[in-house]
Input
Amino acid sequence: MTMRSALKKNTVVFLPALAGLAMMGLVGCSAAGSQAAEADYPSKPVTFVVPFAAGGPSTVTALAFASCLEKGLGQPFVIENQPGASGGLAMQEVSSAKPDGYTLTLGTNGPLVMNPMINKLNYGIEDFTSVGVMAQMPTVLVVGEDSPYESADEFFAAAEKHPGKLSVAIPGATTSAAIELKRLSDEYDIEVTAVPAVGNAEMTTSLLGGHVDALFITDHQDVQSRIDEGSFVPLAVSSPERAGWYPDVPTLAEQGFPELVNAVSVFGVVGPKGLPDAVVSTLEAELQTCSADPAVIKQVGEMFIPEQFSGAGALDEIFADMQDLYEPILGQK
Amino acid sequence: MDVLNNLGLGFSVAFDPMNLLFVFVGVVIGTAIGVLPGLGPTATIALLLPITYTMDATSAVIMLAGIYYGSMYGGTITSVLLRIPGEAASVVTTFDGYQMTKQGRAGPALGISAIGSFIGGTVAIIGLTFLAPVLAKVAVAVGPASYVAIMVLGLFLVTSLGTGSTMKSLCMAAIGLLLSTVGQDPITGTARFTFGIPSLLGGLDFVAIAMGLFGVGQLLHSLERTEKAQAITTKIRNIWPSRKDFRDSSGAIARGSLLGFVIGVLPGGGGVISSLASYALEKRRAKDPSRFGKGAIEGVAGPETANNASSTSAFIPLLILGIPSNVVLAMLYGALLLQGITPGPSLIEDRPDIFWGVIASMYVGNVMLLILNIPLIGIFIQMLRVRTGILATFALMVVMVGVYSINNNPFDMWVVLIFGVFGWIMIKTGFDAGPLVLAFILGPILERSFRQSMLISGGSFDIFITDPISATIFGILAVFLAYSFINNRRRAREATAPAAVPVDTRVEAK
Amino acid sequence: MSAIKLEAPQGTEADPAATPGRHAGRYRLVPLVLLATGIAAVIGSWRLTLGELNSPGPGLWPFVVSVAATIAAGILAIVPDTEAYEKWTRRTTMLAGGVLSLVVFILLFEAIGFVVPSVLLLLLWLRAFGEESWRLALVLAVGGTAVFYVGFAVLLGVPFPDDIVVGTITRLIGM
Output
């Protein structure tokens, strides 16, 4: 009696699990095959740790590239979401993993560069080996469709006139967006009130509901579709050059803030310190191929994959620059 | 009618044999993972995300949505049978559900939850079909100031619904709020109360705390008392709710459907607030509120209904505005992005097949869940026939493994163990875990919105008066508090003799 | 914090029919622990800096909350609430064993993976607390472990720590 009911309980759990297995099998079959890589690497599945909860842009980007790398290198790239400690846990784990190329992670501004400056964590950028850039997303200043400010000029003029009166939602207090706004007030004496929110969804809500005056938001598909449809009006972008997809929107630099060109989220591939050169170059080459792959481009969004691929060296430089930039503002080391 | 045409299109999508299969797979997986504590819809959808993007977009969303609302049905089962709430919204169900099990009424408790869930879910889908655009406006109108008011209201409900004394509930709610501050400050990122432990930077995990306080606490408590391993079998009276049960809970189900539907639109705490509000409402309406916490069937029917209604109406902001209102829906959003589809205001025109297909599939999925759950209740009831020692041992292992699987971090196992010991002490000393756990969920939202409000208003409290929603809620709260204060004083003056029956004496069934 | 609470039960064992007046101390134990926690948190949040209302610091909210907790615990410590208070019994010591077994389980789980600690924990609980026969306990422990492993690690892909048993088996089969 006892045993039977215990079994019954288990079958209920097993049915869906079996369905899941069947589907995983299907996926596995379609992904396997293809040409093998030149070198020995990779000869077993690669774990790719994403330092955020599943569902966000980071996961979407990682999944898109993982399936492409998988095709190219003949081994599964398994995405493991490891949120917690704002990505600190994932980075800590990867920094102490064996540098054999079978544990990689998504390196980006917050978890990799800023987190160790704010909190005591056992890693820094020097504990990682860069491989290459997957995607770059600028931050864009947007207002609602019935905002009184129709251009960046009007917006900044109003901000200068009434310091601290305009509220601008940002994706969090320890993001490059927050730092740029802080520098806007420190270096150019234009003060807006930054309202840290959690994620694009909350920011979108607060602008649509008229709770804040503007957003300084990481550009992504959702922002794109709002701009296309007219409920968001872009005033300025944070990248050094104008963005190809908003040719009419000025950069902050053009608006008279030449220093403010750094609020760009970089999604790079990094591994633990001491990754062998052969592994780095294999991955780097494949990453470059993937960043031209139409399927990847469609999933990540064509504007976010830089036309000019940035490899290991370039990514190293990007992170080093970020470190230099944020250290005086955040650093306490 | 335009809507009916569109719904016709939706049903033609939903009744596609392949999609029917995916609805079925979704609700079955959902029920199963709802039953497994720890492994909630979030973790499951994360696991399935890479698979979905080889599927057709509509089928993928239909299946993932099925997992989500299916898990709401499944979550009830462990709350009622073992006092292990798998997710926030079913914490409230443990109050009366577990008491009903102890009285041998697990069957009616589960039966009424399944029926309530079906009605709540269906009412919400009908609302979603016809009222979605109107409600979407409400979702956006709720800004930081309104949130402060809603969360204060929620906390007020939390402290008033405990079974123990109000002071104990207040104390536990404050401790819950305090525990929720562990981790990084939501605004400045400063580490608070983390004692240098990196795993604490992200805060304590709700599921780990809830399963520790309720599940493990209860298991330790029963461990202490098992005289000789014995089954609860003898106490199982009937499997199906009686006519009286239906009569008692019909009002609760009707009110729960409406409450859940409206509150579910709120991003963030919608699910919990709706079940809390429903419980508080039923307790207040009851002729004899002292029955609550001791196995009142309305205390199970109302919150379960509200919780399912709210999980359905939570789709409104996602489908209409492209704003995911909780983690699970954010995951669904990600699944759509992977398919190259950006949910947003244009979804309804660009991809009516997805929009209406998903809605239609929810009607189908809810019917499937009802049909699926009725025989399942019989099976799950059989679980109680297993000797307590065996049941407790396996439940413990499910909790330990389940909690590990949330973040794949053994740290959460420690959290569950420590809170298990706390939970056991609380049972021994008559403190309720409910207010603690619920305050733990509401706390961070309250803090964040309060600080956002203060930033926006430049430190002025006027913002709570100028915001219409917050002004209304605070107004009602003030009137209510004044009324009950005056009422209490009058009663105290009238009844100089201690005529009042001690309402909260809890009879712990041994 | 946990250590304080863990010790609480062992000190006050089997105290029959307490009257609130004479044994009020034990009803005060939990409120006093909570009071201490509250005060510690007040100090902790003060040190986090409170900030001002128009720019609240990280400590402001924890400060408000811990003051509330301290007041509530203080009231309970002065006027203890005795209702729904259960007596400590001899079997309370069983509980210490149960908690200890879980501590060992988690430590082993991190060190040598899921399989061995799971069999041991299931066996212990089934045999010692469930009072099942050795044979049934062994069958359930091994069978249960297999089901859990297949369900979570294989089918759901939950990454358990490296497992000595599964690791050895796969090496022997040569996978």
